[in-house]
Amino acid sequence: MNSTNQPIIQLVDVVKAFGAQMVLDKVSFAVSEGKTTVIAGGSGQGKSVVLKLILGLLAPDSGQILVNGQDICGMRQQDLNQVRMAFGVLFQGAALLDSLSVFDNVALPLEERTKLHAKEIREQVMSMLDKVGLDGHEQKFPAQLSGGMKKRVGLARALMLQPKIVLFDEPTTGLDPEKSMEIYRLFYRTQEQFGYTAVIVSHDIPKIFNLADQVILLNNGKVVSFNNPRDLQGVESVGIEEFLNNTMGTIYRSKELE
Ligand SMILES: Nc1ncnc2c1ncn2[C@@H]1O[C@H](COP(=O)(O)OP(=O)(O)OP(=O)(O)O)[C@@H](O)[C@H]1O
Ligand SMILES: [Mg+2]
User: Fold this and answer.
1) Could you tell me if 2 and 49 lie in one domain?
2) What is the pLDDT of residues 124-144, one digit of tens each?
3) Do the domain assignments include residue 73?
4) Minimal CA–CA distance to 88: which of 11, 168, 150?
5) How do strand 9-18 and strand 197-201 relate by DSSP bridges?
6) Distances (CA, A) of 221 to 25, 27, 191, 226, 228
7) More confident call, 80 vs 1
């Protein structure tokens, strides 16, 4: 926790619509420092929009988005860039640069944001590639990688500057169960090692819950949050059950049938 015990990220009554479509209708939640928050919900419910709002890539129609207690809405570009320095981001689909090798994709943040010499950059990149299980693949280009490898390159790049906060958008979508488990183990290890705050958008319910300190469920513009992910499994409130059936009914029910 930081000295004032304030959340590292806080959304307060955030409203975001695109034209007539209301995506977030007065959404509020807080993310504590050093913890893992999972954002869940059906396709199109606004999960990626929430991450873009936190990064200041989209602006809310109303409400506040506080990072370290500072409202980033309406911030000067220079200050916003400063705030963004704290973040490591893995976008949905990894967003690698196709013309750069694995090595160069991962080295990019160090080249752009630090004054390290080539030798130090090489050492740090090779060490990170080893951690994410990509040693020996550094010369390949994104088109030559599997889906899981691309995600791991994106993850390596997101962690390169030892960010205070990581935002991962669907890090395991499209991966087989074994590869997903590898990614989860990697999260666990890297968080132990770096102590970052993680916000992870995931469909991988309920597997991801073992990693979560808090789950935020988005549905029809509203949010339901659980501080203990286990509360979600045994929930008996009609409103919440209905909500779960709407957002992830089959997965939830299949869990009950086990
Ligand atoms: N820039 C934009 N302009 C217009 N509509 C947008 C924009 N970005 C998102 N939307 C709409 O907002 C809604 C929420 O989108 P979002 O990408 O956050 O969904 P999601 O929960 O991440 O879904 P998925 O699980 O499929 O990734 C969608 O209906 C989408 O079409
Ligand atoms: Mg999305």
Assistant:
1) yes
2) 999 999 888 889 999 999 999
3) yes
4) 168
5) unpaired
6) 5, 7, 30, 17, 22
7) 80
Nearest bound ligand to the CA of residue 23: 1
The verdict on the CB of residue 169 being under 6 Å from ligand 1 is: no
Do 104 and 149 belong to one domain? yes
Write down the pLDDT at residue 6: 85
- Provide the domain count of the chain: 2
Which residue type is seen at 190? T
Choose the residue to mutate in 25, 45, 170, 205 for probing ligand 1, maximizing ligand atoms within 8 Å of C-beta: 45
Q: Indicate the top mutation candidate among 47, 92, 218 to test ligand 1's pocket, ranked by most ligand atoms within 8 A of CB.
A: 47
Residue 4: pLDDT band by 50, 70, 90 thresholds?
A: low
Domain edge (last residue) among 162, 196, 215: 162
Task: Point out which residues pair with 169 in neighbouring strands.
Answer: 201
68 CB within 6 A, ligand 1: no
Residue 91 lies in a domain: no
The whole model's pTM is what?
0.86
Range of the domain at 124: 96-162
Regarding the beta carbon of 188 and ligand 1, being less than 6 Å apart is answered: no
> Is residue 146 included in any domain, yes or no?
yes
Is the pLDDT at 68 greater than 80? The verdict is yes
**Single-letter amino acid code for the residue at 114:** T
* Cβ 18 under 6 angstroms from ligand 1: yes
Do 145 and 195 belong together in one domain? no
Compute the Cα dihedral for 131, 134, 137, 140 and give only its sign.
Answer: negative
Within this chain, do residues 6 and 74 fall inside the same structural domain, yes or no?
A: yes
Please check whether residues 196 and 223 belong to one and the same domain.
Answer: yes
Residue 179 in any domain: the answer is no
- Dig out the tokens for 103 from the structure: 């090595």
- From the CA of 52, how far away is ligand 2's center (Å)? 10
Query: Ligand 1 centroid to 48 CA: how many Å?
Result: 7
